[in-house]
Amino acid sequence: FILGLGVSAGPFMIRNGLKYAKPVTFMRDYLAGIKTGPFKAPLPPREPLVVIAGLLPKMLRLGAEASDGIITALMPPAHIARLRAELGPNHLLLAQQMVMLEGDAGKARTGVRAFMRFYLNAPPYQRNFKAMGFSDDDLRGGGSDHLIDSIIAWGDERHLHERIAQHYAAGADHVYVIPLTAAGDRLPDMGVVEALAPH
């Protein structure tokens, strides 16, 4: 069992009526609270691993200092390698990869842009995209082809497997996939799950 925690992003929190201020301080206090809070059930044989969602430098440092590792989001393999170098070998690095089983470039990119609309307009994600080297032009118009193709893996089964393998080669301990549909449905595409499942 691995417990994953994240403070989300300001627009998500505000939309749900929650305050969003000093996320790193909030997460630091929450992690301390987990360790010191009362636990009345039988103790597990070993303390569960805890990882935090982190993209920007301060949260990454907190992950290395106060948790067992980091969960990423919307990050290409080249930047997973950078995170591994920053985290060192003794922390977990769980890499997210969104995938779409669609070989038609027009359909795939249209579906991805519909999905990415929120992220491309959310300031925390905008800052992270720019920190990865994407420009203001890449963020406009639903995202440039370069940004879309770097962040989301679309194509045939072989291409999706190759992108996942690139994350492992870059230093990820685990890659978790989010299967998207070209139609922009909010439910996962179970066809992708079946295609990528170990045989």
Can you lay out the helices and strands and say which pair or pack?
Layout: E1 2-5, H1 10-15, H2 23-36, E2 49-53, H3 57-66, E3 69-71, H4 77-87, E4 92-101, H5 105-121, H6 123-131, H7 136-139, H8 145-151, E5 152-155, H9 157-170, E6 174-180, H10 190-196
Helix pairs in contact: 2-3, 4-9
Question: Would you give an account of this structure?
Answer:
The chain is 50% helix and 17% strand. It contains 10 helices and 6 strands. It has helices spanning 10-15, 23-36, 57-66, 77-87, 105-121, 123-131, 136-139, 145-151, 157-170, 190-196; strands spanning 2-5, 49-53, 69-71, 92-101, 152-155, 174-180. Strands 1, 2, 3, 4, 5 and 6 form a 6-stranded parallel beta sheet that branches. Helix 3 links the parallel strand 2 and strand 3. Helix 2 (23-36) runs parallel beside helix 3 and helix 4 packs parallel to helix 9. The radius of gyration is 18 Å and the shape is globular. The mean pLDDT is 89.
Provide a short characterization of the protein structure.
This protein is of the alpha/beta class and 199 residues long. The chain is built from ten helices and six strands.
Average pLDDT metric = 89
| Number of H- or I-type helical stretches | 10
Spans of at least 5 consecutive residues whose pLDDT stays below 50 are none
SSE pattern: EHHEHEHEHHHHEHEH
Count the strands? 6
Q: What is the terminal separation in angstroms?
A: 24 Å
Radius of gyration (CA) equals: 18 Å
In terms of DSSP E residues, the strand content is 15-25%
C-alpha geometry: globular
Structural class: alpha/beta
Largest sheet: 6 strands, parallel
Helix content: 40-55%
